[in-house]
Every structure is written in structure tokens, then in C-alpha cells.
Write a structure and sequence with these properties.
Elements (H helix, E strand, L loop, with lengths): L7 E4 L5 E4 L9 H22 L15 H24 L8 E4 L9 E5 L6 E3 H28 L2 E4 L6 E4 L3 H10 L7 E4 L2 H16 L7 H10 L3 H15 L5 H12 L6 E3 L6 H17 L5 E4 L3
Parallel strand pairs: 5-9
Antiparallel strand pairs: 1-2, 3-4, 6-8, 7-10
Helix pairs in contact: 1-2, 2-3, 2-5, 3-4, 3-5, 3-6, 3-9, 5-9, 6-7, 7-8
């Protein structure tokens, strides 16, 4: 990317000429990024060991058994955030490198709460906002999909006991299709048991779906705002109302409804809101919508018995 030391005249395709200066890039604090990433590697490896039935304190030398989960999940999150970062830098926006979040003790079994980047400058136009918002989920999905395909190809069918408690993951339309193609119909009273790579891939699809919710400052909210402008608020309100209803099936939706309402009080700033969306932007929006539909789960997690 070529730096500019003075403003330049940037003619937009709708005939408007605007004075635009690419955002200066703030020098990143590499120590913070590296420290958080290393901490997240440790917590995800520990979570992967637990998923393999190991006590990390009793068997620290077998840390390598947690690497498949940690490596898969971190690759999905890194792809997601770098999709945002590289697209934002392409459009001259000032953004930070990814901040990874190690999971605190109550959620230690996950290993991480995800990652995020901070945008320090506004989007140049609607195309930039939409493509930055969509690039992350699309990139993360491209890494998560092979992981879940591999997991289903190596999955085993196990019986469900009526009194057996456990964690059961919801199957969105995408995984139902993959399961039928690779495994076939699962008999009544049985379930698929997937390895830790599949669990990481499933979490990657869940994170992708949640980020594509068309509310607030989530990726889906940015895509929706780039498409509809001020009319996006009506769609967001309808989605928040639907999440409140779904909350009676899965209480976690109450949090996302509140989060969507709280972060929708301020819309992202767009320097040129009049430049029309191009074919690439519309294609990315359509792909993001398809991924959201294929990955949506009314009840993502069930803890207890399915019997």
C-alpha cells in the first residue's frame, strides 16, 4: 500500500469528488498482541487436553494432545480477524492487529472468548464498510469448513443413554447436509461423536454465525447498514425481537438481544454514504447471508440428556 503525505482528490463513481486522506496507521503495541496470543495458545491447548480426557496438571508432558483443538480454533479466529484487517488496510483504514482473548476460569473449557480488532478510522464509503464486515466471517468460514468435514469423515456413532448427561452441539443445516453425505442417517437413540478438531470447527461456525447477526456493531450489523443505511434499524429491531423469543429456548439469546440493542445506539461513520455498492460487495453480502442461514442454530448447545 502506498502512503500519502498530502490529501488527494478522489473522484467517486457517482460523479462526486471528495477530498480524502488515507488514515495514518498507529504503530502497534506488539508486546500486548503477542502476550495475549501466547496466553490464548496456552488456554486453548489446556482446553484441548481436557477434551481428550487428560488432566493438564497431572500430564503436562502430553500437551501435544491439545494441539489439534488449539491449532484449529486459533486458525479460524486468526483467519477471521485478518480478513477484517487486510481488507480495512486495503481501503486505507487505521486498524489494530488482532487482540486474542484467553478464556477466564468460568469458561476455561472453551480456551478462548475469541479475538477482535479495533477500527480507529471511519469507512471511506459503503463498499469499504460492507467488505470489511463480510471479509472476516467469509475467511473464518473457509477455514472452519474443512475442519468440520474432516471431523464428520472420522466421526463415530454412539448410543445415547437416557440418563447420561453431557454436552450436545446443535446441528445447523450445513452440518446436517455434511452428516448425511459423509455418515448417512443416524439411527434413533444414537448421536455422532466428533473429535476435538470438529469441536473447534463447530465453535468456528458458531462464532461466524453470531458475528453475522444483523444487529448493532457486529459484522452482520455493518453489512446491513451498508446495504440499507438508516432503514437497517427496522431489520435490526425485528431480529432483536426474534432473539428475545428464541431466548426461551436458549437463554444465551437474551444476552445477544441486549448486546444488539446496546450497540445499535450509534451507527458506524461512513465518509461517503452515496457511492453505490458494486457487484463484488453485493456478492459478498449474498455469501454472508447464505453462510448465516446455513450455520444458524436456534439451540446451539444442550447441557444434560437428550434421552
Amino acid at each position: 500500500m502506498r502512503p500519502y503525505s498530502s490529501p488527494r482528490l478522489d473522484p467517486s463513481e457517482n460523479g462526486l469528488a471528495r477530498l480524502w486522506r488515507p488514515a495514518p496507521t498507529t504503530r502497534p503495541n506488539y508486546h500486548t498482541h503477542v502476550l495475549l496470543f501466547v496466553m490464548t495458545v496456552v488456554t486453548t491447548v489446556v482446553a484441548g487436553m481436557v477434551m481428550e480426557g487428560l488432566n493438564p496438571l497431572a500430564h503436562p508432558g502430553e500437551f501435544y494432545r491439545g494441539l489439534p483443538y488449539a491449532g484449529t480454533l486459533l486458525a479460524i479466529l486468526l483467519a477471521h480477524e485478518m480478513g477484517h484487517y487486510l481488507t480495512a488496510r486495503y481501503y486505507g483504514m487505521d486498524v489494530t492487529l488482532p487482540y486474542f482473548i484467553p478464556a477466564p476460569p468460568p469458561l476455561f473449557f472453551l480456551g478462548t472468548l475469541g479475538a477482535f480488532i479495533r477500527m480507529r478510522s471511519p469507512a471511506r464509503h459503503r463498499r469499504a464498510l460492507l467488505q470489511v464486515g463480510a471479509a472476516g466471517p467469509l475467511a473464518g468460514f473457509c477455514v472452519a469448513l474443512p475442519a468440520v468435514i474432516y471431523a464428520y469423515a472420522t466421526a463415530t456413532v454412539v448410543p445415547i443413554h437416557g440418563t447420561a448427561a453431557g454436552i450436545y452441539f446443535g446441528e445447523p443445516l450445513l452440518l446436517q447436509a455434511i452428516g448425511r453425505l459423509l455418515v448417512g442417517p443416524v439411527p434413533e437413540g444414537y448421536a455422532l461423536h466428533i473429535n476435538s478438531v470438529g469441536v473447534a470447527g463447530w465453535f468456528g461456525l458458531l462464532v461466524t454465525m453470531l458475528n453475522l447477526l444483523p444487529i448493532g456493531q457486529l459484522d452482520g450489523g455493518h453489512i446491513l447498514y451498508a446495504l440499507l443505511g438508516r432503514y437497517a434499524r427496522y431489520v435490526s429491531r425485528a431480529v432483536i425481537a426474534a432473539l428475545l423469543v428464541l431466548g426461551f429456548l436458549f437463554p444465551g439469546w437474551f444476552f445477544w438481544a441486549f448486546f444488539g440493542w446496546l450497540t445499535s445506539l450509534r451507527h458506524p461513520l461512513i465518509l461517503d454514504p452515496y457511492l453505490p455498492l458494486d457487484r463484488r460487495s453485493l456478492s459478498m453480502a449474498a455469501a454472508a447471508l447464505a453462510i448465516f442461514v446455513l450455520c444458524f442454530m436456534p439451540v446451539p448447545i444442550t447441557i444434560g440428556s437428550l434421552g
